[in-house]
Every structure is written in C-alpha cells, then in structure tokens.
C-alpha cells in the first residue's frame, strides 16, 4: 500500500548541531507521488514546511532541506544548524494530485532542541 | 486571523451520543478534507470534498457523515459515538482537488467516555 515511515522520536539535539530525520515512502498506487514535510509547533496547528513534486528535486524552507530520491524512495529532512525554536513535531507525508488528493502521513518525529 | 476555524477546540461526549464538528475556511478554497489522529497513530485521511461534492471516503463507518451547507464549510457529524472515536479531528482545505498544498485547521480533540 501507500505509506510513510520516518525516524521514531523523540530526537534530541543541541542547538547549532546538525539534524537529519529519515523518511522513506511506499507509493504502490500513486504513479507520481508528491512528498511533503509538515510541522506542528507547540500549541499550533499543522503547517506545511516544504514540498517537492518532482523526483530528483530539492525543497527548502526555514533552513531545512529535503531531496526527493526516487531510487531509494526517501525524503530525509536535514538542517545544518538547529535552533531551539525548531523544537516541534515533524511529519513526512506522501500525496498525489488527483481527484481524491489524499495525503498519507508518517507517525511524526518529535524534535527537542536543547539550548 | 485564523484562516481555517474548527469548533470546538475540545469536546467531551458520552458513548452513544451524537456530535457535530465544525469547520470553516476563509482561504477561498474549493476542496476540503477531514483527517483523524488517534492516540499513537498517524494522521489518517477520512473524506475529501470538491465544490461541496464528496470525492473520496475512506471511513468504513456510516456513523461519520460530512455536511457541506456552504462552499467554505465542511462539518463532520458523528453519531452513536464510541470510545474508539476519541481522537483529534483535523479539517484541511486546498485551492482545488488537484492542488499540491493542503492547509490544516487547529483540530478538535474529541474524547468519548
């Protein structure tokens, strides 16, 4: 089926350290999947962090990057230097632009950045 | 100002009762969705609507009924509530049903006793 697997949290890193949250996907019913990272900051709603709709492309936002790798079916989230304000829950997600437009989410990875 | 409003924020109900979760979006979008997140489970797609018409239903139970009285409204009626229905329910919208980006509301946390 269609699913997403991501790093199990919580992930704890110190401020200014680098970060990688792994994400792999399975898209058996979606010919051309779109890949997303969503984020939920404490006390706030879910918001789109970045998206990539073309294999081989990289998306970036707020210092975070993710590259759509079709060969390894991965979409890992990386940041070179995290800040305390990056503490949140990050969700990798898979979708397709069709009449249903359903999004499949991973379990979420809680990131804790220590000052 | 919040662009997607969900009401109420918290809701407690007794088993067997009926509740309506409200969702309004002020983004001018034509497609709306419902997702659910139960404890220790990922967000799960429930319904999609486009121009007030049902496009996809991934909810097995007929106890869950979306209601779209206006273009920017998609409420969720849940009847004969069960404790397993306890979850946070998220409404989302996108420009249309082929748009890549969906915008999510803050959620309604439902607890069924």
What does this structure look like?
The complex is a heterodimer of chains A (115) and B (113). Chain A is mainly beta and 115 residues long. Chain A is 0% helix and 50% strand. Chain A contains no helices and twelve strands. Chain A has strands at 3-6, 11-14, 19-21, 23-26, 34-40, 46-52, 58-61, 64-67, 77-79, 88-95, 103-105, 109-114. In chain A, the strands form three sheets. In chain A, strands 2, 5, 6, 10, 11 and 12 form a six-stranded mixed sheet that branches. A four-stranded antiparallel sheet of chain A has the order 3-9-8-7, with no helix packed on it. The model of chain B has no long low-confidence stretch (mean pLDDT 93). With 113 residues, chain B is mainly beta. In chain B, the strands form two sheets. In chain B, strands 2, 4, 5, 6, 9, 10 and 11 form a seven-stranded mixed sheet that branches. Chain B has a four-stranded antiparallel sheet with strand order 1-3-8-7, with no helix packed on it. Chain B has strands at 4-7, 10-13, 19-25, 31-37, 44-50, 53-57, 64-67, 75-78, 87-94, 103-104, 108-112. The chains are: A mainly beta (115), B mainly beta (113). At the A-B interface, strand 6 and strand 11 of A face strand 4, strand 5 and strand 10 of B.
């Amino acid at each position: 089926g269609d699913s997403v697997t991501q790093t199990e949290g919580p992930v704890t890193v110190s401020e200014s350290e680098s970060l990688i949250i792994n994400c792999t996907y399975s898209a058996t019913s979606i010919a051309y999947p779109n890949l997303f990272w969503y984020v939920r900051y404490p006390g706030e709603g879910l918001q789109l962090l970045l998206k990539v709709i073309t294999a081989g492309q990289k998306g970036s936002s707020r210092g975070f990057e993710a590259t759509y790798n079709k060969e390894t079916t991965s979409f890992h989230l990386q940041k070179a230097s995290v800040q305390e304000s990056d503490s949140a829950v990050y969700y990798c997600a898979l979708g397709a632009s069709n009449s249903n437009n359903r999004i499949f989410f991973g379990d979420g990875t809680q990131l804790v950045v220590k000052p | 100002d919040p662009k997607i409003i969900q009401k109420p924020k918290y809701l407690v109900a007794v088993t067997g009762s009926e509740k309506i979760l409200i969702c309004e979006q002020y983004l001018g979008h034509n497609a709306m969705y419902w997702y659910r997140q139960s404890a220790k489970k990922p967000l799960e797609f429930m319904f999609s609507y486009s121009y007030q018409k049902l496009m996809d239903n991934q909810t097995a139970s007929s106890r869950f009924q979306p209601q779209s009285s206006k273009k920017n409204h998609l409420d969720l009626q849940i009847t004969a509530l069960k404790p397993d229905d306890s979850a946070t329910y998220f409404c989302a919208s996108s420009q249309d049903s082929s748009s890549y980006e969906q915008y999510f509301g803050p959620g309604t946390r439902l607890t069924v006793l």
